[in-house]
Structure formats: C-alpha cells, structure tokens
Design goal:
Two copies of one chain form a homodimer. Chain A contains nine helices and eight strands. Chain A is α/β, with parallel strands linked by helices. In chain A, helix 1 packs across helix 4 and helix 2 packs across helix 3. The longest helix of chain A is centred in the N-terminal third of the chain and has 19 residues. The termini of chain A are far apart. The first copy, chain A, binds a DNA duplex through helix 3.
DNA sequence: TTTTGTGAAACGCTTCACAGCT
DNA sequence: AGCTGTGAAGCGTTTCACAAAA
C-alpha cells in the first residue's frame, strides 16, 4: 500500500465509489469484485488489484463490505473534507460548470468565479456564485481556501491564467481550454479537450465505413 | 498503414493537427518530429510511429511538409467534410456546448439542440441553434444529416436518450453524463466524466501531502 | 549531416491462475 | 464452497537505437 497508483486506477476508484453510493442507498451490505466487474465491464482481478493498493479492504469468501469500502474510498479520494473550487472564466462554459449539480454532489463547492471583463465582475451565476475580478484571484483563493482551479477561458489566455493560478498557491488544475499548458512540478494539471474528443469520433466515422469514405 | 490505430494515437493526431494549423498560419514550411515532440513533451519516435500508421508522410533529412501533413491529418481525422452535430439536453451544459467556439473552428456544425421540456422547445441558443422536441430526434437527425450526438442530460435519463440516438442511426456519441452507458457494437461512445476528473485532482491533493492529510 | 521509419527492448497495465483465508 | 490478494504471464504502448534516404 502507498506505492504509486496509476491515474487509470484512481479514475476507476471514482466509478466504484459512485456505484457503492447507490448500493449503500439501496441497503446492500456486501459486494464482490465479480459484481463490480460486471457493472463496469471490467475484469474482476483488475478491481481487486485497484483496491489492494490501499490495504486489505475485502474479506475472503465474502467480498467487500459496502459501507466500509465506500467510506474508505471517500477517504482515499480525499472527499471526506471540504474541497473549494474556483472557476476562471465566466463565459458560457464557466457558468455551466459553476452550476453543474454533479460537482456539488460529491462534496465539491464552487466558491468563486473569476473574469477579467469589468461588466461581469460583481454579478452572480444562476446558483449564486459571485464573479470576482481576475486580479483578485490570489487574495480570494487564500481567503476562501481554494484548492482546485477550473480553467474555462479561451486558449489564447489560458497559459497566463494558469500561471496566476499557480502563483496563488493552487496545486490542482482542471483545464478545459484547448492546447498544451505548462505547470511546474508539484502542481497537478488535468485537461479535458473537447475538440480532441469530437475529433476522435470523427476519426471513427471516417475510418469505419460510414459511406462518405472508404 | 491501415492497421488498427489506438485511441491514444488518434487523440495525439488531433493535437498535432492543431499545432500544424498554427505553423501553417505562421508560414512555416516543414517541421521535424523533434520539434513536435518538444511542443507536446512527447518522445520524437512516438510521433513518427503515430504518423507512420498512415504511410510515409515525412521526408528523411527534412521532416514533414507542414501543408501536406496538415491536409493529410484533416483527411485521416475525417475533418475534410461537413460534420453535423446534435446536442441532446438544453440545460446549462448543453447550451454552453452549443455555443462553444472551439467546435465550429474545426468544421463541426452544431445543427440542433433537443430537449423534452415543452417550455424550451422552439427557443434558440445565443448563437441561434434551435431547440427541438426530443421526440423529433430521429426525423431531424435524418433530415439534417446528423452524424454525431452529444449527450448533456442528467444521469437518470442518459441511457434512454442514448437508445433513442442509436435508433436514429447516429453512430458516434460524446457523453457528458456520469455513469456507464451501453451502446451496441458499431456505435462509438466517448465519455467525458467531469466528476471523475475533479475527483482525480482531489486524490492528488489528498495523497501528495497538502497539509490536510499525510 | 539531418531526420525519417522501424525492428527490438523496455515498460506498464491487465488478465490469468491459484494459494490462502473465512 | 466462495472470494480475496497476488506472483507470473500476456499484451499493448512507448522508447531506444540504427539502417536508409535526402
């Protein structure tokens, strides 16, 4: 336990947790790696390996105790505490993310939006998140205890914004702008590239005979 | 060439293309795998392998001719033709995606929004995309030649929506709702799970000593 | 000389198979 | 008997290293 865990593993832990929440709500007491494997179309051994990184979480002959595993996964994923999130860029996407219900559910709190457009500063998102001036980022971030920043600004200003975020002491960044961003060691950057996702579908259509091409 | 290409490779092709667009706009004539590798912090041999799947695209001693490679990548990714996209779910996220400028740029056209809420049907997004009744999906999809669907509905209705999309003959789906979706063989599903992305950052913070935990 | 294209080696992730516990 | 935890095998991806071409 405590060794290096791959990102693929941690992503799956999130999925397991979501399912355990449902099982727990349904009053299910235990679950086997076999059941989990069927739910996600994965190999049961993979699930056991994923979980075994964090100790002996299961009981031989029985499986995993739903309540215990759920609790442990929340702890492992760092969800057993407040996580304050700022969204930089109060455009369409920034607003949508600020009000996205899925974030609130798992204990994330969107505590601030930031924008450099004077006309936006001082307004609020539908759900009530206040838009601050981008220049206030460091001050607000420290005051509100912001630990995660979401970048939802145009590509042209993304690197500049990330630099500011890093200077404000934020160590985790979720980036929605296209293009490569550089962060110093010790800062975790995760990028969601919407254009790449769509183009991957386009490639599939183009290559598996959709009539338009070979 | 023509053998099975991994999704990781196709995702990188999108990145290369984006950079080649910039180089071409700047009037750069040729580019080497070394330069591309530095741009994306990848190994140069990996870039050559990625490209070699599609024939001998480079010139030894010179590199890759920017205009030619750009053209070829657009073709490989199926971007050398119209790609009509529908967004299902006219909530905050659906609206934001409908107006996302990055999609239009590479030749994708958002031609329709769909929602089942009567109050939304008939209205338009800021950029003018009309909201149709979800029950019209099959009809509109065929009329408008929609080849890609984007799912931006709550988790509870996502599987039902995907089923309708598949029945409408759409073969490529980009899913933003959390949770596992099933599609029949021959349909490509790509999921962007925002909660998993945030939780992966949370895991990073929790495990690499941020003060809150060891 | 420069840089591609590519077998071979290295690496990392997944699956198999089974010992060990309940 | 049932199910976990895990060493070993299998497999796919990346990196190395170099022959071949400009």
């Amino acid at each position: 336990m405590g060794d290096q865990v791959s990102e693929q593993t941690t992503n799956r832990l999130s999925l397991y947790l979501r399912f355990l929440n449902e099982l727990d709500a349904d009053g299910v007491r235990t679950v086997s790696s076999k059941v989990l494997a069927e739910q996600f179309a994965l190999n049961a051994a993979l699930i056991r390996k994923d979980l075994s990184h964090f100790g002996d979480l299961g009981v031989r002959g029985v499986g995993y105790v739903v309540k215990d595993l759920r609790q442990r996964l929340r702890q492992i994923l760092g969800l057993d505490r407040r996580l304050n999130v700022a969204i930089i860029g109060a455009g369409n996407l920034g607003f949508a993310l600020a009000d996205y219900p899925g974030f609130r559910q798992e204990g994330f709190r969107i505590v601030a939006l930031f924008d450099s457009l004077p006309g936006k500063v001082g307004r609020r998102s539908r759900s009530g998140v206040l838009i601050h001036d981008s220049r206030e980022l460091e001050r607000v971030a420290r005051r509100e205890g912001i630990t995660i920043a979401v970048i939802a600004v145009p590509a042209a200003s993304a690197q500049m914004v990330v630099n500011t975020v890093v200077e404000a002491g934020i160590k985790a960044v979720l980036n929605f702008s296209p293009g490569a961003l550089r962060v110093p060691p010790g800062v975790k950057l995760k990028s969601v590239d919407l254009t790449v996702s769509l183009e991957s579908l386009s490639f599939y259509l183009a290559s598996s005979g959709d009539g338009a091409r070979m």
